[in-house]
Write a structure and sequence with these properties.
6-stranded antiparallel β-sheet, alpha+beta, Phosphatase 2c, domain 1, 30% strand
């Protein structure tokens, strides 16, 4: 068993980055605090070559305080570890149980997105994806950019019912790791595991439109440089939130 996990310091002021290579799957993440003193974003990876799967998680603490940062670290780490064996949705449920046990205070909360890929990069094997809140996952297949996740926000609630949301509703989440019911967890499968995936917090997803994300994913040479470009581009738009991008390249085995 091999594990790589990131715990981002609650008072981090510089960029955090980590690159991991798991068989034919290469991933790299970059996180910057933006204009905040506390970086409440976190990311984690976990792989077990015995079962042939790798899991990646990106979490965003709800709020700008230490409890949110601790929650994000705990949720990302737990979700990735459990998802390798039991699937992305089970990873989120396990993270919820651990969050309620370890950090019972209501202010310790997080949203999260999880992706489970075959560690060997098998071209016909699907990716298993689950999420709560407004963390996002995008997939670039070499031709088309797909946004796989749908935000769990008040704004999306109204849009789905044909109403225009009021300003600010995009930042009000309707689910979180602490409060989500099992049936509310978002779930999707990409069909094929190959291509380039982006897991990100709203500091990236809500600052960069689809055309900008598509261009960066298509033109980036490595997962590491692409993650760096995404974060820097989001901050260059005037973003002040914690900003995290985890880019995964799943290459078919030769």
């Amino acid at each position: 068993m091999h594990t790589e996990a990131i715990d981002i310091s609650a008072v981090e002021s510089a960029a955090m980055e980590r690159e991991v290579r798991l068989g034919r799957v290469a991933g790299s993440a970059v996180s910057k605090p933006g204009g905040r003193t506390i970086n409440a974003d976190a990311f984690a990876t976990f792989t077990d070559h015995r079962v042939g799967r790798a899991a990646f998680a990106v979490a965003d603490g709800v709020g700008d305080h230490l409890a949110a940062a601790r929650a994000a670290r705990l949720v990302a780490r737990t979700a990735a570890r459990v998802a390798v064996y039991s699937g992305a949705r089970a990873g989120i449920l396990a993270a919820q149980r651990e969050l309620l046990r370890e950090l019972p205070e209501a202010s310790a909360d997080s949203v999260v997105v999880v992706a489970v890929l075959p560690a060997g990069g098998q071209p016909d094997a699907p990716s298993d994806i689950a999420w709560v809140g407004d963390t996002r996952l995008y997939r670039w297949n070499g031709r088309v950019l797909h946004r796989v996740t749908t935000d769990h926000t008040v704004a999306e609630y109204f849009r789905a019912r044909g109403h225009e949301p009021m300003p600010g509703m995009d930042h009000l989440v309707t689910t979180s790791a602490r409060t989500v019911r099992p049936e509310e967890i978002g779930h999707a499968s990409t069909g094929s595991s190959t291509g380039r995936l982006l897991l990100c917090t709203d500091g990236v997803g809500k600052r960069l439109g689809m055309p900008a994300i598509k261009t960066i994913l298509a033109e980036g040479s490595s997962a590491k440089s692409t993650a760096e470009t995404l974060v820097d581009a989001a901050l260059a738009t005037g973003g002040t939130d914690n900003t995290t991008a985890l880019v995964i390249d799943a290459i078919p085995a030769r």
